[in-house]
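Field reference: sequence -> structure
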Amino acid sequence: MRHRNAGYKLGRNTSHRRALLRNLVTSLVLEERIQTTVPKAKAMRPWAERMVTLGKRGTLHARRQAAGFLLDPQAVAKLFDSLSARFGDRAGGYTRIIHTGFRAGDNAPLAYIEFLGSEGIQAAKRQRRSERLERKAAAQKKATEELGNKPGEES
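Structure field:
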């Protein structure tokens, strides 16, 4: 029977599990969307929601509590500046888990965990990535053409 056995152990000891969850929540706050396994996403969801609640509280004590859990001062700043403003009128349920299939290799179930309202940020990231790839392809094409027409040779 699993009476009073709440939470996920994730096959790790206590310190390793705590470090893993701190890393995942910090990455989620900074990136607003990360891909991980379903059990890890379900284990980190309460911590991510708790951090947003601390951000909404906005007190110095809440900031210090968040800084004690999150690993990056930039994550604390983003949490208290932009995320708390975004979820100011929402009473919980700040994240969503989207199942994406299974990982090649060990067949682990994968999922995206993201903050609600991060669709615009994700679209902007995709746009910047496609522009960067286009510039890289153009530079490679130009370099290939220059190699094909070496100086001193006529085509």
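Note: The chain is about 60% helix and 15% strand.
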